[in-house]
Amino acid sequence: MGKLDGKVAIVTGAARGLGRAYALKLASLGARVAVSDLNLRSWQEFDAEARSMTGDTTMDEIRAMGGESMGYEFDVADRDAMQAMVDDVHQTWGSVDVLVANAGGGRGKPRETAASIVPPDLFDLVLKMNLYGTYHACSAVAPIMKAQRSGKIVTVASIAGKVAGIGGGYAHYGAAKAAIAHYTRNLAQELGPYGINANCIAPGIIATARIVQLVGGSESSNSAVNDIALRRFGTPEDCARVIEFLATDLSDYVTGALIPIDGGQNRSD
Ligand SMILES: NC(=O)c1ccc[n+]([C@@H]2O[C@H](COP(=O)([O-])OP(=O)(O)OC[C@H]3O[C@@H](n4cnc5c(N)ncnc54)[C@H](O)[C@@H]3O)[C@@H](O)[C@H]2O)c1
After folding, report:
1. Distance between CA atoms of 44 and 18, rounded to whole angstroms?
2. What is the mean pLDDT of residues 242-254?
3. Residue 92: partners with Cβ closer than 8 Å, 6 or more residues away
4. What is the Cα–Cα distance from 95 to 102, expressed in whole angstroms?
5. Does residue 253 have an active-site annotation?
6. Bigger pLDDT: 82 or 267?
7. Catalytic residue among 72, 132, 135, 173
8. Pocket lining: 38 vs ligand 1, CB cutoff 6 Å
9. Is the pTM here over 0.85, yes or no?
């Protein structure tokens, strides 16, 4: 018996990276998992991710484990497309029990995205893919979860939503992630009376294929590791374990929380 046998989960941005780890974790716990992504084969962009794939898509990997999965390719900034996916999952599987609103990320270089100079098109794009995508996903599942009088929602912020970037860089991303954390607190207040939990995670530096390419070099040669109490970068599994906690009855009395998954990161500069 898995902790999530008979449950239905949706994970956005799950073709690679952390979202893929969350989808595989929830499937391993017994959930049927709907995977969404802008590109369901986005793993092809990073060699390290490609090497770790055991199937053509996350859905194929789940099916190979004996689980059930469906895939949806769309932009989370598109509210109608989000609603269409949630409706389809609900009609096909009969419930929506877990949402992990993971899709997102930053765009542009830190020195080109300081608070007062971030170009309007980048500001708009990053707010849409993070904050609006999260709002679209949460508002689409909420009526279903309210009717069920149960549900677990997890949103994804970042340490960048808590600590300003060096020189104010990546301000659009930090602002979007801080807004997601506060949106989630409000969501928890609204949905709590319906038996729905809404929590937010704030990963630090997690060594996905994308981050390894971005940060470069080995952990031991990277000075950023000295700002982390546990003296290592996180792994997708470190985050997926917290998703397990937040998606199951282990967290039944936890809502409106912002949970850092950063190894005790405490930037000194
Ligand atoms: N990896 C880290 O260190 C880290 C740290 C803090 C926060 N996060 C957050 O965790 C989440 C996942 O990060 P990751 O490192 O796995 O990133 P990633 O870029 O490897 O994966 C993100 C996935 O989301 C998809 N995606 C992006 N924009 C989308 C959109 N508009 N609509 C639908 N799908 C979209 C991408 O195609 C990709 O498959 C993001 O929200 C990111 O901001 C990551």
Report:
1. 15
2. 98
3. 70
4. 20
5. no
6. 82
7. 173
8. yes
9. yes
Q: Which amino acid is at 9?
A: A
Backbone angles phi, psi at 260, to 5 degrees: -70, 140
pLDDT digits (tens, 9 = 90+) for 169-214: 999 999 999 999 999 999 999 999 999 999 999 999 999 998 888 8
Q: Which atom of ligand 1 is nearest to the CA of 16?
A: 39
For the Cβ of 236 lying below 6 angstroms from any atom of ligand 1, the answer is: no
Strand order in the sheet with 98-101: 69-73, 32-37, 8-12, 98-101, 151-156, 196-203, 258-261
Task: Check residue 269 and give its pLDDT.
Answer: 52
User: Mutate which of 42, 107, 124, 170 to test ligand 1's pocket (most atoms within 8 Å of Cβ)?
Assistant: 42
Provide the 3-class DSSP secondary structure of residue 150.
Answer: coil
Side chain identity at residue 206, one-letter code: I
Domains of the chain: 8-204+235-259 (3.40.50.720)
CB-ligand 1 contact for 129 (6 Å cutoff): yes
Is the shortest distance between the CB of 11 and ligand 1 below 6 Å?
no
Residues 94-106 have pLDDT tens digits of: 999 999 999 999 9
